[in-house]
Amino acid sequence: MTQEGTHIPVLLEPVVEALAPTDGSVYIDGTYGGGGYSRAVLAVADCVVLGVDRDPDAMQRAWDHAGKDPRLKPAPGRFGELDLAARAAGYEYVDGVMLDLGVSSYQIDQAERGFSFMRDGPLDMRMEQRGPSAADAVNLMSEKDLAAIFHFYGEEPASRRIAKQIVKRRDEEKFTQTLDLANLIEASVGGRRGKKTHPATRVFQALRLYVNDELGELVRALVASEEVIKSGGRLVVVTFHSLEDRIVKTFLRERGGAMGGGSRHAPEVKAKNAPTFELVARKAIDPTDDEVSANPRSRSSKLRWAIRTDAPAWGEHSGLNSRIPTLDVLEALLAK
Question: What is the pTM of this model?
Answer without folding.
Answer: 0.89
